[in-house]
Amino acid sequence: MHEMIPEITAEQRQRSLGWFAVWWIETFTLVGRGGGVGMQIRFAPEVFQFIVNCYALDKHGRRRFNRVTLCRPKGWNKSGIAAAIALFEALAPCRFDHWAVEGETYTFLGETYYYEEGEPVGRPVQNPVIHILATTENQTGNTYESIFYNCTSKDAPLSVLMGVGLDAGMTRILLPEGGVIEPVSSGASGSDGGLETFAVADETHLYKVPRLKNLFQTVKRNLPKRSLDADPWLLETTTYFQAGDNSVAEGSFDYANDIREGRIKHAAGLYFDWRYSVLPFEDFSDEKKLKRAIVEAYGSAAKSPDGKDYVFLPDGRLEALNPATGRTADGWSLNDPNVEPAYSGDGWVLPDAIMAEIYQPDADPADSTRYYLNSRASVEDAWLTETEIMTHTVMKDLVDKAIEQRRLPMLWQDILSPDDEITLGFDGSVSNDSTALVGCRVKDGLLFIIKMDEAPDNNARAKWRVDRDSFDMQARYMFDHYNVVGCFADAAFFESMIRDWERDYGQKMKVFARGKGGGELMRYYTNIRHRDVYKSLETIHTNTQYALTDADNDSGAIRFLADPRLLNHIRNARKHNRQFGYLIFKETPKSPKKIDAAMASILAYAARQQYLGNSQDDVEDTYYMPIRMY
């Protein structure tokens, strides 16, 4: 699977300096380390596309992105690609100057590039300052080693510049027309006053200690200093992070999710490119499934057995591309929606070698998931594992389209028919957390957000309060216009509002939070009914163990709409053991990673199960001292 946030259209890709960048890199740079050292670089289709996306321009020729995250599995050559881009930034015309006229050319070291009319033409950055962030004081890193090789090896085309001002050392490289490439560590003096025009932060899943996180933030803060003349940007490469480490990579994922969810109101400067695959642990023993998952995660980096380029078609088939046309026998190409790169003739990773490592007796499946499938390895106390979530997530294409059209909050209207039987779940807070109204379609167990409001992660947070009236209006709209058969609502902070729902709509419900005669028609006190909450949690957990079914009204069916707001709240839920079982909480009481949509989903699903006749026996009328669950 391939996530690109934001999605970039074919028209936008045409307006990019990346086409020229690929030609320049393939013409003048070599592989700088590893078994392929000294070989000419030839980019596989996926890498080609990534570089074109990196250099996308707006209509005025300014860079669209000032921060780019490349997330790929271990061994994908992220450092080598970063080194090649750094050389382009240092020595090539890498910033927009004008649009090409017919017949315009560029010549460098005896090689000539022929521009197409209307293609963007670049100019060099004056006195470029390129910093390669190092994780230790005495380690220059993989990226800098590749740059150094290309500047000093007699076989490298760029080494001829050593006689005209290029001065390369292990601590810095001085550029012919002024400027520098240098590794920078957390102990470097003066980094706060830097004038970077480009920076590389390699393997940011390792940036989890304060000194490295501070270094990253310092360099990032420096970038706007030369925004007028140099249009600076930062390239971050990483393998999937360990959840809960609070690394720089984890922060970048959160930022990308905020963009997808529409929580970033200003023009976001991040381009986020992530390839991964999902495979349940129990399927690791199936060699065919594991090999396919590895190829899906590595994409074009996976070496094809016959030298051809392959793609995954939307229906999952693996097909070869015709090298002359770039299309399959049925006419599919990488430019078509939901067609993803697979094996490549220019790949460098052998899937069988990765499989051999995964099958080592001391290999941890969670580590293999993170390093080789580039996917989330759930924390030990996660309520649901990533596999359990992703194997029951549906309608991703529909969600992606809604996000692109900025109508994710209204997507449920396209999915739901007024005649569909649904249940509602509600959970919320006044000021510090989120408030969510979630629906569950009875016939297939589909959980979806109807409305969610979340405290902003900025200075406005202190004064933010949830808009109670908007939730009251939305719930009443659902009762009036949709076939709601039950509603379980956590009454904390919203007692009077939910009592009003009970008064106006309670008798119309088919299921009740605590028996029709008990008075609590919708109010569901999660801070009292701990055992009932635990049973509902276990019901969902158990049902995620089974494959999706198309049978209507199957009590075991459960589906999560691929809404990142919903999925992230479910991922954030942590189990805390109790004598009777467990409950779910945030990772810490003050964590910004909310779970309210998960809690609302649990309540909606509990109402659905009760409606289908699968509820627990009537609960005892036993009450305890209320405490708020965080």
UniProtKB/TrEMBL annotation:
Q: What is the protein's given name? A: Terminase
Upper lineage? Bacteria, Bacillati, Actinomycetota, Actinomycetes, Bifidobacteriales
